[in-house]
Amino acid sequence: MTDSVLTAVDASFDPYTGAERGGVDHTSPAEVEGMLALAVRAGSVLAATSPATRESWLSAVAGALLEHQEELAVLADEETGLGLPRLRAELAGTARSTLFYASVAVEGSYLGASSDLVSESISLARWNIPVGPVTVFGASNFPFGFGVFGHDVASALSAACPVIVKAHPAHPRLSVRIAGIVRETLLSAGAPAGTYDLVVGFDAGLQLVDSPAIKTIAFTGSERGGMALRDRAAVRGVPVFAEMGTVNPAFVTAAAVADSAGTEAIAAGYVGSFTLGAGQFCTKPGLIFAPAGSGMFDAVARHVAEVPAAPLLTAGIAVRFASGTAELAAAAGDSAASAALVGEGYAAAAQVFRVAIADLIPGSRLLEECFGPVALVCEYDDGAAALDALAGLQGSLAASVFTGGSTDPETAGILARLLPKVGRVALNAWPTGVANTWSQQHGGPWPATSRPEATSVGAGALSRFVQPVALQNADPRTLPVFFAPENPWHIPRRIDGVLTLPVPSAVPLSASKDLS
Amino acid sequence: MTDSVLTAVDASFDPYTGAERGGVDHTSPAEVEGMLALAVRAGSVLAATSPATRESWLSAVAGALLEHQEELAVLADEETGLGLPRLRAELAGTARSTLFYASVAVEGSYLGASSDLVSESISLARWNIPVGPVTVFGASNFPFGFGVFGHDVASALSAACPVIVKAHPAHPRLSVRIAGIVRETLLSAGAPAGTYDLVVGFDAGLQLVDSPAIKTIAFTGSERGGMALRDRAAVRGVPVFAEMGTVNPAFVTAAAVADSAGTEAIAAGYVGSFTLGAGQFCTKPGLIFAPAGSGMFDAVARHVAEVPAAPLLTAGIAVRFASGTAELAAAAGDSAASAALVGEGYAAAAQVFRVAIADLIPGSRLLEECFGPVALVCEYDDGAAALDALAGLQGSLAASVFTGGSTDPETAGILARLLPKVGRVALNAWPTGVANTWSQQHGGPWPATSRPEATSVGAGALSRFVQPVALQNADPRTLPVFFAPENPWHIPRRIDGVLTLPVPSAVPLSASKDLS
Question: Which residues form the Aldehyde dehydrogenase domain (chains A, B) (predicted)?
Fold first, then answer.
C-alpha cells in the first residue's frame, strides 16, 4: 500500500441540521504501520507492569476526561445530537468505569493464578497473559461509553494490552480530541508510547484487522458489521468479540396487568425505554408481549404520540430508520404508519406497531433489530404460545419480565425459557441502563454477540484480552512475581487445587472516608 | 432427509495387518433426530441437577469403564494398534480424569456465582448456566482420552451438558462398545435418557453440527477438519472448540549441551517423545533447535535408527505419512530419505530430517504438522536468529525448553518469546504426557486451537460448556439454590465484589485414608 496523494476524510455532520462541520483526515497506511510497531513494543512493556501501575495510568486518564467534561460533551453533542445532560452523564460514567476496570485488575482474579505439585517430577503453574495489541471498533451510539475510550478500551488496558482504536465515522472530531487527551495523559503518567492510539478511516481499520500484530478485536455495532469482521479475522484465527444489536424482548404476565394502573405504568416505561437516546441503545426493548385485554397497545400508542421527535445519529441511520419502519409496518400489516423522519436534520418520530404471534416466525423482519425509536407490541391470548414465541426468538443482549411480584407463579417458567437465550434478564425493570459491576453480563448467545461466553461490560470484560499459559517444571524464580510465597500483589490464587485468598490489607484511604 | 435403503457402514480395520474386521452401521437421520430430541429434554433436567449428583453418575461410569478395562483395551488394540500396555493405562487415566472433572464441578468455581447490591433499586446476580446439548468429535489417536468418552465428554457432562458424540471412523467397534457401557451406566445411575449418545457416520455428524439443538461443538483432530467445522458452525454462530495438530517446538540452550552427555540425553528423549504412540500425539515435539557443534542431529539419527517400525492408526494416516515425509525430505533437501512405510499393515519407520533456519519461513511445509513418527532437527549458529525463528512459528499446543538449570541466563528470554505462542511450555521435559490438574493448559493460539482462551484438559475444560447470565432485581428465592445464604453447595462466591470461600467441610472419607 502507498499513501494516496489526495487524503480521504471522515466529514463531521451536525445531526440537528444535517450540516457538514469540518472533518478529519484518514490515517495513512504508513502511519498505521508505525502505530502497530509501537503497539508491539508497548505490549512487551505492559505485560511486565503490575495492575497497580496500570491503575495509576487509568486513574490519570479518568481525571483528564472529567477535566474536559464540558468541552467533550459539547463536541459530542455537535456530532451525535444526544443532548448535553445525557452526554455529561455518559462521560462521568466512562470515567467511573475506567477506575472500575483498573480495580478489577488490581483484585487479580482475572490473572487465574494456579499452581500444582502434580508429582515428584511434575509441577505446573498456569496463569493468564495479556494477548498483546488489541483493536477496538467503537459504536456510534455511545460516543464515550463505547467510543474511542470506553468499556472495551479501558478493560483491555487494565488487562495490560495496548489498544489501537478505530474512530467511528459518526463522531470523527470527538474521537480525535478524546484520543489526544488519552494519549497525552498516558504518556505523562508514565505509560510507554504505543499504549494507545487512534486510526481514522475504513481502510486503516482493515489494515489493523489484517495485521499479525493485532491479537484480538473488539467491536460494538450492527450484526452485518460484526459478522463481516468475524469472518475476515477468521482467516488468521484472531478472536473477534462482536457485540451486536438485538431485539430485546419484554414479557408481561397476567398478574402484572391485573389492573389498568399496571398497564399504564408498563406502557409509559416501555416508551421511555425504547425512545431513550432516540432508541439508539443496543439494549433497547424492541418487542413486548402483554396479555390480550390489557390495553397495552393502545396505552403504548398514546405515550408514543407524546414523544417529541429527536435527531438520529447519522444520515445513514436516518435512512435505514425510514426504510426499516416501512418494512416493519408492512410486516405488521399496518398500512397507516406515519412518517418516520420529520423536521430538520435527522429528526425521527417514535413509532409503534401491533404484531400477532403468528407473524413472529423465523426470518421475519419483525425479529430483526430496527435501530431508532420504534418498537412492537404483541398482545397474546394464549400465554403458553406467547412463551413459545419468546423462547423461539434469536439470542438477545437483554430482556425484561414484568410480574405481579415475588409470588407470581409465572415467573419461574418464563425465566427458565428466557435465560438460555439472553445475557441479562431484568425483573420489573427495563433493560436500558447497564450498571458496571462484578455481576454484570452484557453479552448473550449469537447473534447478540459472536462470543456467548464473553461480556463487554462488568468485571468479566477483561477476560477477553487474556489467554492462559502453563509452565511445567519451572524454577519458582522463573514464574511471574505474583506466584511468590508472600503473594506480593495480594491476589486470589489456587494452590494444589485449593482457592486461597490474600490476607486482607489495610482499609485504603478512599474507602475509609465513608466510615468517618 | 429419509433413510436410505442401503445403510452405509464404518468398516473396522486392523492396523497390524490392514485386514477388515466387521463394521458398524451409520446412524440414520431419523435416529439422529430422535437423539437430539432426547438430548434437549435431558438438557433441562441436567441444568437443574447439583454437581454432586452428576459426580455420582460419572463415578459410576468411571467404575464401569475400569470393570471392562481388559475387554476395551483388547478391542482398542484391534482397531488402533497402539498396544495393550498403553491402552490399559490410557483407559485408567480416562477413569481418573472423569472423577477429576466431576470434582471440579463440585468445587463450584466454574459456576462463577456473583451477586451485587448495586444501589437501592438495582441488584444483580451473575452465574454460569450450561449451554445445553454438546457434540463432541473425538480423535483417532486417543481412543479413550479423546474418544467417545474422554476429556471433552466428561467435562461437558460435569458442566451439566448432555453430549452426543460422533464415533471416529478409526475405531467404530470400540466406540459403539464404550457408548453402550456409558449409556447403560448413566441410566442405571439415575441420569435421564438423552444424557449421552453416539452417532456413527459423516452425515450423522453433519446433522448434529447443523442442528439448532446443539449449542457447542468440541473437536480434536486435524487443522483441516477443525477449520471446516468452525466455518460450517459459524453460519449459526455456534462455538467450535477445535484442538488441532501443531509443530510443537523444542529449544536447547548452549548450557544444556555443554557436554556430550547433555546432547545424548536430549536426543534420546526427543526420539522417545516423537515416536511415542508411533508419533501420533498432538503434543509430539516436531522440531528441535540445538546449538551447532552439539552433534544433536547425528545423535537423534542414531536413536531413530533403533526405533522399531510401529503401525499407524489407519490406512489414510499411513498414506499421508508417506506423502508428508516425502514432502519434508524435499523441503529439507534430503534426497536419500528412507522408506516411510515398511512391513505389514500400516507399519511406519521413524524418520528425522535436518533443516536450516533459512528454510523455516512462513508457508514452508516444514512448519506444518506431519502426523506420525517424524521430526526435524535445526542446528543453529546464531542463538538470536534461532530465537527469532522460534518466535515466528505458528501457535502450538506445547513446547519444550532444555536449559543448563535454574541459573541458565538464556531461560527468561526464551520464555518471554515462547509463552505468547504456546499453550504450555515444559522446562527440561518433553511435551508428550498431559497431566490432568487444576493448572493444566492444553490449548494455545490459533492454529493450535480455534479458541486460544480455552483448554481441553484440566479444570478449565468445563468453561467451554457454560455461558454467563445475569438476573437483575430478582427475588432471592428466584435465584439458583447455590446463592442461598447458607451456601448449600459450599462453593466460592463473590458477594458485592468480594470473593468469599465456603466454610471448610469435614474431611471426606476418601481423603482421610491417607492420614491414617
Answer: 12-444
